[in-house]
Amino acid sequence: xxxxxxxxxxxxxxxxxxxxxxxxxxxxxxxxxxxxxxxxxxxxxxxxxxxxxxxxxxxxxxxxxxxxxxxxxxxxxxxxxxxxxxxxxxxxxxxxxxxxxxxxxxxxxxxxxxxxxxxxxxxxxxxxxxxxxxxxxxxxxxxxxxxxxxxxxxxxxxxxxxxxxxxxxxxxxxxxxxxxxxxxxxxxxxxxxxxxxxxxxxxxx
Length: 205
Description:
5 helices; disordered N terminus; Cell division protein FtsL; transmembrane helix; membrane; transmembrane
């Protein structure tokens, strides 16, 4: 046999090119540096302090708003009372009996007959009689003795007197309680806070 006939035919494995034996590579994720616990604690403390400061400022604003609301409510109440008092003054001054009283004080008298004057000729077309002084006691309803503003002022004075009386009674009550507590403290401190034991006599005496 010839050498060509005895040699085996080349296989597919022998036809593959030789490759270098290498391990597969992969992308390694970048390590994120860990934050220290101290910085986390500091940030939490700062956030808590900021929250407390914010709550404190909010409470201060709410308190100031309540004070302003109370002041404005008091001013509104005072202006409402003043407006009501002025309205009562206007109604009292516009009353017929008050108008009649003021007219009587000015020397005015009611007219009996009404005369007519012709504007073209200037002549009196209807006779009129002279006015006579009337009796001031003819006013049916006497004028109001107190105006609305005077009544409001009187009510304000009465309220102040009641408030002063209440404050004085409260002060007297606190003084009495303080004196009673002081006396009780003194009696408790006497003799060490206990009743002294009776003294015993020696035998033969």
